[in-house]
Amino acid sequence: MKKRFLAAFMILVMGCALTACDEEETADGQTADTASEAEEGSWSIYWYLCGSDLESGGGFATYDLSELMEVELPENVNVVIETGGSSEWQNDVVDADHLQRWLYSSEGLELVDEQPSASMGEAETLADFLQFAKNNYPAEKTAVVFWNHGGGSVSGASFDELYGFDSLTLDEMYTAFASVWEPSEEEQPLELVGFDTCLMATVDVAYTFSDLAHYLVASEETEPANGWYYSQWVGALADDPSMDGEELGRVICDAYYAGCEEVGTQDNTTLSLTDLTKVGPLLTAYDTFGSEALAAACEDPGFFSQFGRVAAKSENYGGNTREQGYTNMVDLGHMARQSSDMLGSAKDVLDALEDCVLYQVGGQYRTEATGLSCYYSYNGDVDDFWGYANIGTGAAFKYFYAYELTGELDDSGMEYIKNMQFEELPEVKNLLSVDWDGAPLDVTDDGISYLTLGPEANDILAGIGFSLYYVDEEDDLMLWLGTDNDMNADWENGVFYDNFRGVWGSIDGNMVFMELSDESEDYTMFSVPILLNGEEYNLQVVYDFTTEEWSILGARQGIDDTGMADKELRLLEEGDEITTIWYAATATGDDDFEAYTADTFTVTADTSFDEMKLPDGSYSMVYEMRDAMDNYAYSDAVIFDCADGEIQTTVFTE
């Protein structure tokens, strides 16, 4: 595919007027032959094209440039582009050693300015580009589009490969925009801000741009590398420049989903259009929602665990597992809907979302998306939370998470709860305050294991599942096969039963390590670590309860240490080589599990994911308890033999 779109791009460029800008500039940076007044009925799109490793490794920015250049623009529509942020561009036109500014217009593509290399993850770099574009190519309606990786509310977007993947945080974005345009909640200067990136349809992003732009188009979930369909949405604008930001936003959403369908990446995609002029009531409702949650926790800290179980079952984005990394982004509406029996203000959140999220598209495994996500501390990482607290909107949920994760509040937090008639904070109980490590399992006459913790579990646990192990005592080997939550839970009495059926996941009959990553009423998702042609990936697989079938959605490389989400959803292709990864330790020692490669096989047209009966041998099951701070405790083990698919419990260890 890369060769095809590179060739297409070069053909298009050869037909364009491609010249360096040598016009004399005025003192404010505006070229002397450019009109300073915006033409009525005109549009300008300012495209911040930070290529990063998406371009150097896959040529995806070049591909989207080639899509854009399929469009013949009218004289009143301009696309101003800044390229940079990549160590290599997969074409012979863009220079990776400089920041370059391009104009795509009715005359074709033209290089109009060149600047020394600088990090596209710096506010100053963004501000310089926006000022240049505004001065030289004003329009009645202006859209600013970011292209790159995204990391959600904490990490932001535009990760520059040349500068240690430095990214633009939300406060840096606001600083840059506000230095170019006068913010106004009554009359936003921009028509639309869009993120052709992962994870940026958040309530915090909406707040950041609420006095800068009328509309926001972004994705709650990670985007596949095909991204926005530029020939379709820019083409629609070229055909009808009279459309406003709402109309254009709807076109972008529909074109994006159609493009995903063309290449088969649509199943877990999201994209939404938000009217930022209506986001004020949502921000108010969101803070009231958080305030009510904080009050419930001050009344009874066991609420943290109950709310944690809601968050675990709410649609969340980018992974949020130990294997994939954590974005800590959850769908705001789904979480509100599932907590509506606990928090009365949840309905106001849902009503406000319905009013400001005008349109959205999504795949069959992202049906609970309501258009905007919010922060939830899935990983219990205090440093990550403080990063969010310095950027995110609203105060209530910040105090809620601070109390949950640290057991205390600073002076401003204590003053906040004092206004809610609370003078002190009760002690937060968690798995560190109880002795549940090594808790014994019992076994029923039918061979079903169960764990009895008592009613206190309801106030301490945010989730419970099990880990499965293969045990080879003769070779002193234990293999960790993964995690699942196929259990029956009696939260009122704190009794938990396994619902294990003696089967496990496999690819073409090769058993795999699999980790639960997402669950809903209609489907369950798992992450499977593999080597794909020698590179580390997490294969995304889903079990659909409606069709009772497994599907392979594709492979991603997860969240890295910078918080950057992998934008490329890599679909399996015939001829790909997959190597499964398992985790091994000694059966008698206390050494840590270490990854090792297992089976290697080649993808065919019939490659599929399915369940298989466990091979004959001995296995161990351990219940895995998790609290809202992401602390873990592990039960004792129940050991069973498997023969011809039949399970017989042979050893119960106290």
CATH class of the largest domain: Alpha Beta
Major sheet description? 11 strands, antiparallel
Q: Give Rg in angstroms.
A: 26 Å
Number of strands: 32
Roughly what percent helix?
25-40%
Could you say how many structural domains there are in total?
3
Number of contiguous helices? 17
β-strand amount: 25-35%
Question: What class would the helix/strand composition place it in?
Answer: alpha+beta
CATH architecture identity of the largest domain: 3-Layer(aba) Sandwich
How does the overall form come out from the CA principal axes? globular
CATH-defined topology of the largest domain: Rossmann fold
Task: Present the secondary structure layout.
Elements: H1 2-14, E1 43-50, H2 52-58, H3 60-68, E2 77-84, E3 98-105, E4 108-116, H4 123-136, E5 141-147, H5 152-155, E6 157-160, E7 166-168, H6 170-178, E8 190-196, H7 203-208, E9 213-218, H8 230-239, H9 245-263, E10 270-275, H10 279-299, H11 303-312, E11 316-317, E12 329-331, H12 332-338, H13 346-356, E13 357-362, E14 373-375, H14 382-389, H15 396-406, H16 411-418, E15 441-443, E16 449-452, H17 457-460, E17 463-472, E18 477-484, E19 487-490, E20 495-498, E21 503-507, E22 510-511, E23 515-519, E24 523-532, E25 535-544, E26 549-556, E27 577-585, E28 594-602, E29 609-613, E30 617-626, E31 632-643, E32 646-652
Parallel strand pairs: 1-2, 1-5, 5-8, 8-9
Antiparallel strand pairs: 2-3, 3-4, 6-7, 9-10, 10-13, 11-12, 12-14, 15-16, 16-20, 17-18, 17-30, 18-27, 19-20, 21-22, 21-29, 23-24, 24-25, 24-27, 25-26, 27-28, 30-31, 31-32
